[in-house]
UniProtKB/TrEMBL annotation:
GO terms for cellular component: cytosol. It holds the Pfam family Aldolase_II. Belongs to the aldolase class II family. AraD/FucA subfamily. InterPro entries: Aldolase_class_II_sugar_metab (IPR050197), Aldolase_II/adducin_N (IPR001303), Aldolase_II/adducin_N_sf (IPR036409). This is L-ribulose-5-phosphate 4-epimerase. Residues 16-195 form the Class II aldolase/adducin N-terminal domain. Its EC number is 5.1.3.4. Keywords: Metal-binding, Zinc. It catalyses: L-ribulose 5-phosphate = D-xylulose 5-phosphate.
Length: 225
């Protein structure tokens, strides 16, 4: 039996999940037209499910999600995969704890990326979700694994699940695709709030000891267990 046959049930579930999660990106104002994407690792296999390139969000279905290996090669699907496939495949190869990757061009976060400036940790939400400032990764050209290398270089030793790739946009990671989507939503909200705060004056930084306490509470205590 082929690998695709072995994981047929898992692929059916992930194709449906990834297709549905894409709806959150335009709903939260994180993308326009066909920009951005969500991908998910296939657990236990060197495979990923990702959005097809250039397909409108209202045309996305489980059937047109694309299955690729972790070198970015299509192994199942009738469409060309996202132009970010090689970059995200690199992330999955290098960071085995990552189960989902999201890319957006959300406007406030991109404004910070265009300045090459990290978003400072001046709100409790930023401390909760990102454990400190949201970092900036290097400028990299789209189309190969260069962006993936920048993501991994920036996030490998960071608590943040988000990186602002300079002059480009937001990439987020998570233990699964839903968590990565959540991080993308939170990143844009933090970027907008801190931008607005700067229009009024200089935001007050949160002391590192409080950032650590907030991050620990949110990650390990908040919500249902």
């Amino acid at each position: 039996m082929s690998v695709i046959g072995e994981v047929a049930g898992t692929l059916t579930r992930l194709r449906s999940e990834v297709a549905q999660l894409h709806a959150h990106l335009p709903a939260y104002g994180l993308v326009v037209w066909t920009a951005g994407n969500v991908s998910a690792r296939v657990p236990g296999h060197d495979l990923m499910v990702i959005k097809p390139s250039g397909v409108a969000y209202d045309e996305l279905t489980p059937a047109n999600m694309v299955v690729c290996d972790l070198d970015g090669r299509v192994v199942d699907g009738e469409h060309a995969p996202s132009s970010d496939t090689e970059a995200q495949a690199y992330v999955y190869r290098e960071l085995p704890h990552v189960g989902g990757v999201v890319h957006t061009h959300s406007p406030y976060a991109v404004a910070w990326a265009a300045r090459g400036e990290a978003i400072p940790c001046v709100t409790t939400m930023c401390a909760d979700e990102f454990g400190g400032p949201i970092p900036v990764g290097p400028f990299a050209i789209i189309g190969d694994d260069s962006i993936g290398r920048g993501i991994v270089e920036t996030l490998r030793d960071s608590r943040s699940p988000a990186v602002l790739m300079q002059n480009h946009g937001v990439f987020t990671i998570g233990p699964n695709a839903k968590a990565a989507v959540k991080a993308a939503v939170m990143c844009e909200d933090v970027a907008r709030t801190v931008h607005l705060a700067r229009q009024l004056g200089e935001p007050i930084p949160i002391e590192q000891t409080y950032i650590d306490r907030l991050f620990d509470r949110y990650q390990n205590v908040y919500g249902q267990r």
